[in-house]
Amino acid sequence: MKKRIAVLISGSGTNLQAVINAVDAGIINAEIVLVISNKADAYGITRAQNADIETLVLQHTDYNSRLDFDLAMLEQLEQKNVDLVVLAGFMRILSDEFVRHFSGRMLNIHPSLLPKHKGLHTHQRALEAGDTEHGCSVHFVTAQLDDGPVALQAIVPVTATDREQQLQHKVHLREHIAYPKVIAWFCADRLRCIDNKLYLNDELLPANGFKLPFDALD
Ligand code: GRF
């Protein structure tokens, strides 16, 4: 059975686009049933509309508290019977209640090789730390920020001439391969999160997930 996916965004939505493309290509066996943005001007909304996907703008500024906003989203997601919530550049911290509700069925992509560089400005911080490798991590979401079990990491070598923007661009390109890949695993029932441990094809994944080499094309 096709899984029902909802994607939460706040901005440009290039990862959303990568997921839309992978669904269209039959790589992800799912239907994107809803895209929610907390920003009315997020370009990702246009991307979803262009793909005939239902969209909803819920502005967090219209709610009295984080929890009220999260409960409004939760209600919409429940109405759509979603199997998987995909955070794709959704720039809001989620309440424990929301995270618990979607435990084991909510993914995020973070632009660093976790546990390194949680939070913001990850590319600049990787450069300042003198890291020779950087990249992105796709992980299940838990109550601690950028801390849930990692399913996959895509590695990007850092070169001597890299500046923040170049590094960000290289990582972004890898995100568009990494995220659809993990979503495809989940939707094919190949990836499971049990007691904060991840199993791919019933085998326990290593602590920092499957490693996607820089030369892997898909
Ligand atoms: C990406 O860099 C992702 O790692 C982070 O937010 C950004 C979203 O970019 N979580 P886009 O809107 O998908 O282009």
What is the compact description of this entry?
This protein is α/β, with parallel strands linked by helices. Helices cover 32% and strands 26% of the residues. The site of 5-O-phosphono-beta-D-ribofuranosylamine has 13 residues, from helix 1, strand 5 and helix 6.
Keywords:
single chain; 218 residues; alpha/beta; Rossmann fold; 2 domains; eight-stranded mixed β-sheet; three-stranded antiparallel β-sheet; 11 strands; 32% helix; 26% strand; globular; binds 5-O-phosphono-beta-D-ribofuranosylamine
- Within the CATH hierarchy, at the fold level, what is the topology of the largest domain? Rossmann fold
Q: What summary fits the major beta sheet?
A: 8 strands, mixed
Report the span from N to C terminus.
24 Å
What oligomerization state is this entry in? single chain
Number of domains: 2
CATH homologous superfamily of the largest domain - what is it? Formyl transferase, N-terminal domain
> Which strand order does the major sheet show?
3-2-1-4-5-6-7-11
How do the helices and strands follow one another from N- to C-terminus? EHEHEHEHEHEEHEEEE
Tally of extended strands?
A: 11
What is the CATH domain class of the largest domain? Alpha Beta
Mean pLDDT: 96
* List of distinct ligands in this structure: 5-O-phosphono-beta-D-ribofuranosylamine
Class by SSE composition? alpha/beta
